[in-house]
Amino acid sequence: MAILRDPRSKGPPVDSGDNAWILISAALVIFMVPGLALFYGGMSRSKNMLNMLMMNMICLGIIPIIWYLYGYSLSSTGTDNGFIGTLDNILLRDVSGDALRDVFFALTFASITPALISGAVADRMKFSAWVAFVPIWFTLVFIPSWAWVFKAEGSGWLTERGSLDFAGGTVVHVAAGASALALAIVLGKRTGWPKEPMPPHNLPFTMLGAGILWFGWFGFNAGSAFAADTVAIQAFANTFIAGAAGMLAWLVVEKLLDGHATSLGAASGIVAGLVGITPGAGFMGVNGALGVGLVAGAACAYAVRLKVRFGYDDALDVVGVHMVGGLVGGILIGLFASPSALGGEFEGGLIEGDGAALLIEQIFANVVVGVFAFVVTFGIAKVLQSTMGIRVELDDERTGLDQTQHAETAYNS
User: Fold this and answer.
1) What is the rounded distance in angstroms from the CA atom of residue 29 to the CA atom of residue 157?
2) Could you tell me the domains of the chain?
3) 294, 274, 286, 280: which is closest to 347 by C-alpha?
4) What Cα–Cα distance (Å) separates residue 65 from each residue in 97, 104, 112?
5) 163: alpha, beta or left, given left = phi > 0 and alpha = psi -120 to 50?
6) Which of 6, 54, 177, 309 is the most exposed place for a label (fewest CB within 10 A)?
7) d(CA 338, CA 360)
8) pLDDT tens column, 164-176
């Protein structure tokens, strides 16, 4: 993602075509939230469908208000401190015009990131605890992580060290995936897991959700060029190729290991490829995107199987897809980054660069954000557990969260 401008700086005017593309891209990213809700909801059990939709959609209520109050200012402004922003622009004070456009485009990324975590804790977390968790997590994990990578004028400390993240692979996917692991560990396993089968209840919804996510991801990645230019075109092409490659790679692994290629595997593979290309979408050519998609699809297909071996109940494979896919994509920038393909002024990867410097920085940045997110989220979850409690009662879990948390049912017979 292009670094957000400091609202106090005076840059050249942006033409109406760029404005239109970025505003359309923002709308596409917002559409990803209900797409994610359907993707996760279809994978859940029918008695928890509405709860999963609500866990996702509530993020569109909470995060925009926090972003307006202080989130943007603390995450994105000022150039003197590489770790956190300033309070100069709370309530979006002195933010207008092109800067306001950029602020609200970034807000769409901020809104979907905590929603990603919800899939790991499906079927068993109190809705009230989730509503408390989201703003605390956003303040203590997302805002600092964003500042390290996307703060104004490239002043975040990880960016200043030399790491690259075009559209949020580190801040969005690695941070959310690592946080999902921590929250799932504290919350504990679903009753009966893994011995009791808990298959998805509506795979057509999951496939529809994957399609909406792919559609919205063009805004997520190509919109992060902050212009309707050749970089946006390259990011658009890379997004298409990586999603396709991720689907095929996942299905091949699934066929080899289980003997079947499933619709759930196809949907998951698409998302894995898209997650993988997100950090490098504007830093490599189509050949690199193909490689990232294939590796991410295969790696995530293997990774989702590890939860049973290691005993953590990541209900809808957030860790296996988003954390692992984000790590794969972020690190492979160190191999495939191609200034010649983009005409960019950034360091090339091992194939095109002069050494392993970029690869080392990519590993460092992704590990730092992942460890930070895991540790802080673990602490947040423990505090909430000891105060308000985070897990529903056993009877409520067995009845289903739609009825016990929301007094509704998704399907009336």
Assistant:
1) 27
2) 16-401 (1.10.3430.10)
3) 280
4) 20, 12, 14
5) beta
6) 309
7) 16
8) 999 999 999 999 9
